[in-house]
Recover the amino acids of this structure.
């Protein structure tokens, strides 16, 4: 069975500092990997995704993530955060070629950016 | 661009009452899902559908029923609400996963349900 672990439930950071949100997954088959962002009182929206090819994936709002197959990780990074990045971030994995079609989500990391 | 629309956005129920949440998508997606989100638990899949007329159980299906009579609509029902069903419910849709599609989910804005 697949699973996703987000290692930090909360990450406080000051504005303009760099941030890394950690995500590890377990799977016996190839996967697609996603990061979603949820702003307060809103639904989830896609931040970026890894399908294949380059292991460094760039997303919206200056975020990027690096797929590391040997460490089964997909950490999310931003070199300089803004107050507006305060949100909850979810890592998710989807089984490639599967018919089930759904994503398995981690429990989320709340990013709090302070002035 | 409507995308995925959920109604109602807020609802308060008494224990034992019933209700239905409606999800509508205008992207012609085959797959639709209902998740619940609880603090510290992330998103957990309740039920999903891979096409009109089909439904399947997810991770936490007990106490819920669903129907997919039309491709664009996916209904989530609570026959006898319990306080443990107090949560935020999210509907999502996707294309059928395959070589050309990754199964990326598109979410509604959520429905906040409180059961007293």
């Amino acid at each position: 069975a697949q699973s996703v672990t987000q290692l930090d439930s909360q990450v406080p950071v000051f504005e303009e500092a760099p941030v890394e949100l950690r995500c590890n997954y377990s799977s016996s088959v190839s996967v697609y990997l996603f990061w979603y962002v949820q702003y307060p009182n809103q639904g989830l929206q896609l931040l970026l995704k890894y399908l294949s090819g380059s292991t460094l994936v760039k997303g919206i709002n200056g975020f990027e993530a690096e797929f590391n197959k040997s460490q089964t990780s997909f950490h999310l990074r931003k070199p300089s955060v803004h107050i507006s990045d305060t949100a909850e971030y979810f890592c998710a994995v989807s089984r490639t070629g599967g018919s089930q079609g759904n994503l398995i989500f981690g429990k989320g990391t709340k990013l709090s950016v302070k002035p | 661009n409507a995308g995925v629309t959920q109604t109602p956005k807020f609802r308060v129920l008494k224990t034992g009452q019933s209700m239905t949440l409606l999800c509508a998508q205008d992207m012609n997606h085959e797959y639709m899902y209902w998740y619940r989100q609880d603090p510290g638990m992330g998103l957990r899949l309740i039920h999903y559908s891979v096409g009109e007329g089909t439904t399947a159980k997810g991770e936490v299906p007990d106490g819920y029923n669903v129907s997919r009579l039309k491709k664009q609509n996916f209904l989530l029902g609570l026959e006898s609400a319990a306080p443990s069903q107090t949560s935020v419910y999210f509907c999502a849709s996707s294309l059928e996963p395959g070589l050309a599609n990754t199964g990326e989910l598109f979410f509604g804005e959520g429905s906040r349900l409180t059961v007293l």
